[in-house]
Amino acid sequence: MQFWIIQGLNSLSLGGLLFLLSSGFSLIFGLMRLANLTHGAFFMLGTYFAAVALRSFEGLNIWITALGVGVTVAAMGGLFERLVLRRLRANPLGQVLVTLGMSFIISDACLMMWGGDSIPVPTPRNLQAPTRLFGFVFPTYRLVLVGCAIAAAVVLYLLLERTRLGAMIRAGVDDSQMARAVGIRVSNLFTMVFALGAGIAGAAGVLGGPILSAYPGLDADMLPLALIVVILGGIGSLPGAFVGSFIIGTIYTFGTALFPELAYIILFLPMIFVIAFRPQGLFGRVIA
Amino acid sequence: MTISRRQLVGGLTGAGIASIAAPRILPAQISEPIRVGLLAAKTGPLASGGIDMDLALTMFLKEHGGILAGRKVELIVADTAGVPATARTKAQELIEKEKVGCIIGPLAAFEALAIADYLTEKEVPTLGVAAAEDMTQRHPSPWFVRLTSTSAQCTYPLAEYVTKELKFQKIVTVADDFAYGHEMCAGFQRAFEDYGGKIIQKIFTPLATPDYGSYVAQVKSADAIFLGTAGSNGFRFLRQFVEYGLKEKMAVIGGMTALDESVLRNMGDEALGIVTTSWYSAELDNPLNKAFAPAFRANFKYDPGYYAASTYLAGEVLEAALNATKGDVVDKKALMTAVRGNNAQTIRGVIKFDEYGNVIGNVYIRRVAKIEGRLVNAVIKTYPDVTQFWTYDKTAFLQSPVYSRDYPPAKNLEP
Fold this sequence. Notes:
The complex is a heterodimer of chains A (about 290) and B (about 425). Chain A has about 290 residues and is an all-alpha fold. Chain A has a domain at about 15-215. Helices cover about 75% and strands about 0% of the residues of chain A. In chain A, strands 1-2 form a two-stranded antiparallel sheet. In chain A, strand 1 (about 130-135) and strand 2 (about 135-140) form a beta hairpin. Chain B has about 425 residues and is an alpha/beta fold. Chain B has two domains: about 5-150 and about 285-360, Rossmann fold (3-Layer(aba) Sandwich); about 155-285 and about 365-400, Response regulator (Rossmann fold, 3-Layer(aba) Sandwich), CATH 3.40.50. Chain B contains 14 helices and 16 strands. In chain B, strands 7, 8, 9, 10, 11, 14, 15 and 16 form an eight-stranded mixed sheet that branches. Chains A and B meet through helix 1, helix 9 and helix 10 of A and helix 3, strand 8, helix 8 and helix 9 of B.
């Protein structure tokens, strides 16, 4: 019983982290039809920034750090889109290649700047003590992380469904040519969404830091997870990313707990069936 | 190095002309620098160790003014990126283009295995640091010696120590799911169970494990957990181990890389009291290390660990061998005999090699303590002259299969 409860909570917390990671990826993919392979690197950058900030300023709040780092990485993402990706709009394959190249540049820059060691991100002091519930012990921070993911999901949902910007983004996702025709500046929208996606990834990197630590290769560890969440949930769909994250979190957690040798097979095998039987993902719409 | 290629070529031609004019002058190769190749992963996930390997060897040569056994030494560093295929290309480059006389490294077992046959075929003396058991057991090469330890060599003394001194009876092992982790856990399990202990659970985690939560949550109740991890993985596992409140319930012990100085420098007080085993510690109390470790710390602001010590050690062994051959590297056989016949005083104590080319030397049991505000691996017991076969019969040892995930079989696992 204890096993199922603890691993259930683990699934939830990993799912929360995955949602923070992949929601931005999904948004960018949905609007720009671009598999942004820099996404893992933005996430890692967030974690490194958090490690540096939280270790050099004693008493700095992790939530404020997440906000600050999110804005910083968003700015970097916006610039990257404006200065590089935009010029390659006619060349989707070139764009993907550039995002891959950018991720190499970022990860090598991180290596140069911070070396090859793993740098821990301190857990907020008031959340360090494990939570004890009915005789179970569980890290408090992980529980809080689930809350963060749900809060982020609500905010993003409201942004997309209840604001003018959201309506424009949805219009762009559904039919960017028509959106252009009715006067929406889709190029500006691209920059904004790319920045937003990068910013969420950066903030997610901060919040994931206490669990993951900053280390070279973190980007490559996280990117495939974002990819499979989006494939499962459906491209460009926020509810898809949300549900997909928790499903992947559960599969991964119970997979590694029950069949540790097959951890990655269990994670990736279902993707074959998704691609075979429901290529648009659980919540994706069929793209004409 | 200070000598440029053009100067070198100029010097060579000069020497050539001079030798026509005066045939009794020293052969050209004596004035030519000895070229030493270092294979180290300086980028990618293993970069931390690779960079330390480069720093320490460069420091060793600098301390000697770039001269060993009266000859100038030129170091050529090739970055393997921690990728076997790249290691192979770089080894080829070092040997065929750079014409190195010997090779130090590489770090990871899979890199070493990828180039082992090539180096044997090319007959290049290699001072290895990778730990794969069979390189000095069932498939030794006359051109290869290992200066550090096999995967399991350091775990045998630890097994004795934890049963006899700490009285542990039940232990859970956790390690990365690749050969190094398998071999280390297998060796530890063998010795620990021979001393009467029980390994009740073995957990192997994929090399790329973003979140250790689900693994930590499965750890069964035991006297201790043995960390057979390398690089940053052990440290990240440990972090979660503490957060799940398990460190209050069981002791933590580890292999030679789990709490290496390179890991320790980023850890907090949660590391205090952890007992590990290794062939080195920055705290070792011998004259050579008393000079090396503080100098390294003064230069780079952190303690040297496994990786830094391994190439510094390689420098020391190479110097001793070159002294024996009077600086000759052209006769590769003689150089290799000199390396193998070594009885060098090193930063890890006196070492020698067995007939398979593996090191026989001290192994140290260490406990993490805080000295002058920083975490160190304080030596608490020394096991002298440990061989790769420990107390086991060599012939029987070599006739059994190599250590692996399932060999020797774990008989005491709890369901």
